[in-house]
Amino acid sequence: MDLDVYVTAHRAEWDRLDQLLRRGGKLSGAEADELVALYQRTATHLSLIQSSAPDPMLTARLTQLVARARATVTGTRRSSWRDAIRFLTAGFPAAVYRSRHWWVPTAVLSTLVAVLISWWIGTHPEVQSAIGAPAELREMTRPGGQYETYYSSHPAASFAAQVWTNNAQAAAMCLVLGAFLCFPVLWILFLNMLNLGVAIGLMSAAGRLDVMLGLLLPHGLLELTAVFVAAGTGLRLGWTLIEPGPMTRRAALAEEGRAAVGMAIGLALVLFLSGLIEGFVTPSGLPTWARIAIGIAAELAFLVYVYVLGARAVRAGDTGDVEETDRSAALPTAA
User: Cα angle vertex 318, ends 66, 312, to 5°?
Assistant: First the structure.
């Protein structure tokens, strides 16, 4: 492309678009139609210049012009409670449902890893001795020991807030670090499963597996599910970089990235609920069966939420992405 010739041929259109934008809403019907047509053509011009003959100053000018035109054409929209309700009833469950082929296998394989680690530690005294001295292990696993008193070591409200913050950070890291070709997400998952397997294995070796499961299951079912969803979404985001499908890599990553941001918000709410259970139910004086029943009920409610509302939203065309009017303009690319 001869950039000078191209600019000469289309400068009048860009100037005319700028003139119409400066007039704000004082446009006739014909002028409004002209503005829309000029906006579409200028977006195409910008795409061609970016792909064939990028010029920083010209690209900056046209980018600003296209952004102003888009804002004028689509108008501005304020967020409302309806957006929040739509997100909770359609957007978030749809995003979780769409990524189920990633987080369900992630959950199964991660749980298997944790089970194998706990079995290995629980059945091999030499591995236990490598973890800590016998006196230290007894202090951790005895009745009233560190594992058992961990959940009541702080006031329930502050403990729930601390747990929520830590888990939300872990989930956010899984979502964000997925863009680094999946490897950081796999490492975070392994560390979580290692810690879980060590705790279960040591308590099992001490003959107190029932106590440990009674402490873990009330909040752990929902908490781990949220972590698995975050990890699966992060892995999907990383795989998008490797295999973007029919879209350009940039467009595919942008779409999955926007959905991941929404997932982070939704999972923060899920982890808030699991934090409340961990802070108020797990260390409570309720019978073990009652505490576990609450955890199972919370887990089943989340799965029904995803597989009923999420499936319904996906069938209606929702992908978990933001509204089309809130997305950046999709510019055509040169062949």
Answer: 170
Using CA atoms in the order 321, 322, 326, 327, what is the torsion angle rounded to 10 degrees? Answer: -10
If one compares 13 and 334, the residue with the highest pLDDT of the two is 13
CB-CB contact of 155 with 220 (8 Å): no
Query: In 3D, which of 77, 41, 38, 42 has the Cα closest to residue 63?
Result: 42
**Model-level pTM?**
0.72
The pair phi, psi for residue 248, each rounded to 5°, is -65, 155
- Output the pLDDT for position 27: 78
CA–CA separation, 164 vs 185, rounded Å? 19
Instruction: Look at the block and give the residue holding tokens 């499908």.
Output: 245
pLDDT digits (tens, 9 = 90+) for 295-309: 999 999 999 999 999
Is there a contact between 203 and 211 (Cβ–Cβ < 8 Å)? yes
Region of 78 (left: φ > 0; alpha: ψ -120 to 50; beta: rest) is: beta
Residue 122 has pLDDT above 90, yes or no: yes
Alpha-carbon torsion angle 29, 35, 40, 41, nearest 10: 120
